[in-house]
Amino acid sequence: MQILDGKALALQIKEEIANEVRQLRAKGMRAPHLAAVIVGTDGASQTYVANKEKSSHEVGFTSSVYRMAESTTEEQLLETIQFLNNDEEIDGFIVQLPLPKHINEQKVINAISPDKDVDGFTPINIGRMVLGEEAFVPATPMGICTLLQRYGVPTSGQHCVVLGRSNIVGTPVANLLSRKGVDCTVTLCHSRTKNLPELTRQADILVAAIGKPKFVTSDMVKEGVTIIDVGIHRIPDDTKKNGYSIIGDVDHANVDKHCSAVTPVPGGVGPLTIVSLLQNTLKAYKKKL
Ligand code: NAP
Fold first, then answer.
1. What does the angle CA 147 – CA 248 – CA 145 come to, to the nearest 5 degrees?
2. What is the pLDDT of residues 60-116, one digit of tens each?
3. Which residues have CB under 8 Å from 286's CB, separation 6+?
4. Which one of the listed residues 91, 117, 119, 229 is annotated catalytic?
């Protein structure tokens, strides 16, 4: 069984990005600039933004974080987005989700300039992606494709079953894996899918993005499957200094022995998500050259 080590691959790709940034700087050009907006004090969101900031610095990017209070109004947030859209020195930015309940998330996403939408969440970028045009592709699905490609997992003609149809993971990954050149045959499952284990047992590649800890059990997979576990869950763990462990959507202790390849949690898809964001930011920067 092969571990699809996202952490190691992310380090390698970060080094590639850092090299490119060094070459740009050597020519006297400014560093690419990634900004993040975070509203409120949600612990997981703070951790995600801190990781994005750290990774930006590691590759030589300029990074800035706009921290806004939980009580921020939709109008104030939209003003900040306009400011970031217009700032020539900022190449790309993300708005960390989820937003507080009183803010309309889609309205906020729609306000982001498609040219700076390095999360690939705006309708324009999603439309371009679906049409196979040049686009910023959402970071997690892009990271999944990078993992499969760089580890040489065969995709052409393979049956890929995707669990979950969210706009940020399941739906775009199903689209990317079924496009020409990748050529999987994709089945997209959701909470209304009937006979789920029957379908998952047919998967050559199983992408679990369902948001339920240890949902995928050994009776749901066939021998030799490749599993991409997207789930991230913090569960209390007294043996850990920080008091919690991170687990995924797959019951790895029982499932991994049946796999030909599998992403661990943590250290699988997560690091590739951040790397994809960096790649998109570099692309946004280079588009302006
Ligand atoms: P989400 O928006 O909650 O979507 C979950 C999807 O799973 C929905 O489409 C839902 O179906 C489906 N579902 C729920 N219960 C089901 C069941 N019993 N049987 C079949 N389908 C079921 O989740 P998400 O944002 O895509 O995130 C999924 C997981 O990935 C979460 O754990 C999240 O933390 C993690 N995540 C990780 C990364 C990373 O970088 N590693 C990035 C993003 C998200 P319906 O549509 O019918 O409700």
1. 15
2. 999 999 999 999 999 999 999 999 999 999 999 999 999 999 999 999 999 999 999
3. none
4. 119
Residue 44: predicted pLDDT: 86
250 lines ligand 1 (CB under 6 A): no
User: Whose alpha carbon is nearest atom 48 of ligand 1?
Assistant: 191
CA angle 145, 227, 46 (to 5 degrees): 70
3-state SS track over the chain: CEECCHHHHHHHHHHHHHHHHHHHHHCCCCCCEEEEEEECCCHHHHHHHHHHHHHHHHCCCEEEEEEECCCCCHHHHHHHHHHHHHCCCCCEEEECCCCCCCCCHHHHHHHCCCCCECCCCCHHHHHHHHHCCCCCCCHHHHHHHHHHHHCCCCCCCCEEEEECCCCCCHHHHHHHHHCCCCCCEEEEECCCCCCHHHHHCCCCEEEECCCCCCCECHHHCCCCEEEEECCCEEEECCCCCCCEEEECCECHHHHHHHEEEECCCCCCHHHHHHHHHHHHHHHHHHHCC
Query: Ligand 1: distance of its center to the CA of 18 in Å?
Result: 32
Q: Enter the pTM of the model.
A: 0.97
